[in-house]
Fold these 3 entries.
Entry 1:
Amino acid sequence: MSKIFVNRVWVDGQILHAVSTTGEEACYNLQCFRGFKHASKEQINDFQIVGNKSVYWPELDEDINLEGMFYDNHLCALSPSEDTVVYCGES
């Protein structure tokens, strides 16, 4: 199974976007997740990448796995180690 390298992650309003180096884009509407329903714009925009695998919101104590996000967007299969999709940084 080949890896997908994500080089950009951002939030646009309530939508989390992640795009790979080959142009595949996965999106999540954060309002579909209970932990984001009452979050402020500042809280939603305050995230970090953890372990090159997850997007984490420290103030909300919420995280989203990049592989799960790409899987839910039908862009990859799930792997036992959840390392098919990895963040490689902005380019």
Note: The chain has a mean pLDDT of 94.
Entry 2:
Amino acid sequence: MDLMKLSDELCQLHITYAGAMNRVLSEVSAKGEDGIVLWLYSRRQETSPTDIVRHFSLSTGRVTNILRSLEKKQLLFRLHSPEDQRRVCVYLTDKGKNFAKETYTRMVERHAKLIELLGTEETVKFMNIMEHIMILAEDHNI
């Protein structure tokens, strides 16, 4: 089967199952504010807004708005770095850490439901393929 035919079939799957795909992804993904809180919690190191922009491929304005919202919710705070006053660092509050733990637990539970439906063997295959896709996408800036 040629590349364009496979690509066409993949696009058709995407279009045909767009609703289901959106539901699944919204149930198991960590995006927006939740994604940033989870990532900050997993890093457990000094992080700048620029690090967030790079990691999530978001605009600086979008990250600024998200950080402002998370500060209002008292999930994080920003401080100037003691080593370099020009650098702003982002830190989770205790409330933010608890939120991250709870959010991660819910994600694990949602993933477990999908794994149960798909089966362990198929899930392992899927995870290997997804990891390979993500590495290729990152390496080739797709």
Note: Residues 94-118 form the longest helix (25 residues).
Entry 3:
Amino acid sequence: MIHDGKDRYGRYLEEFQVGDVYRHWPGKTITESDNNLFCLLTMNHNPLHLDEHYMQSHQHGRILVAGPLVLSVAVGMSVIDTSGRAIANLEYERVTHDGPVFAGDTIYAESEVLEVRESASRPDRGLVYIETRVHNQRYERVLTYRRRFLAPKRPA
């Protein structure tokens, strides 16, 4: 039998169980270039993320990685284990920035399944609700979020 990468990408609705935890690997080391490019692409010109001299007098003493970059990387890290087969992402909620991320930090994430239910209107799919927790290399929590997505049922 021949298997391609699609076989390992995401899950069908029946494969999710409440309480399951997926540890996403590998981690991602966030570089200064990652942060600069993200800020340029998103037009986020806040000196917290770009101005080293300004940040020397700030409580953290150095540039902070933009929070939406950390969120975006964490979502991307989770896709292969969770929503890779998704029909649609429906909602992001309860995003909390729990700690700072600096250039050179490596982030890791894990997602816990909170709810799984079949669609009331479409029998070929269902709703999956997960919480993703993001940690740095010292296992300090830096970000938490929840999201819902539509997952297809396994084809007959």
Note: The mean pLDDT is 95.
